[in-house]
Design goal:
Elements lengths: L2 E5 L3 E3 L4 E8 L8 E6 L6 E6 L6 E3 L7 E6 L4 E6 L8 E7 L2 E2 L3 E6 L1
Length: 112
């Protein structure tokens, strides 16, 4: 079955950096777009970034553009989210997504 397992969340100071990872299994990874979403307390889940099957196309939410970078390693079936210049408003649970499948999420907390 499809499994998505996120890791890398942590408590970081504002201005800091963090790299999230998503380990995928149970499907033909290289044939799917992959995405990162996030949900803050009391907020709707929102799109953060997405990447095409071979990584040639990426898309970002305006709020994270130029600070976050999504990448993937098809051989390892991994998706990454490099986050720089973190802000308090980036605090959220971050989820990896493939179509209708979601991971369990990883908590990112940015202290101001």
């Amino acid at each position: 079955q499809v499994q998505l397992v996120e890791s890398g969340g942590a408590l970081v100071p504002a201005g800091g950096s963090l790299r999230l990872s998503c380990a995928a299994s149970g499907f033909s990874f290289m044939t799917y777009w992959m995405g990162w979403f996030r949900q803050g307390v009391g907020k709707e889940r929102e799109f953060v970034a997405s990447i095409s099957e071979w990584g040639e196309n990426t898309d970002y939410a305006v709020s994270v553009k130029d600070r976050f970078t999504i990448s993937r390693d098809n051989a390892k079936m991994m998706v990454y989210l490099e986050m720089n210049n973190l802000k308090s408003e980036d605090t959220a649970v971050y989820y990896c997504r493939r179509g209708d499948n979601w991971g369990q999420g990883t908590q990112v907390t940015v202290s101001s």
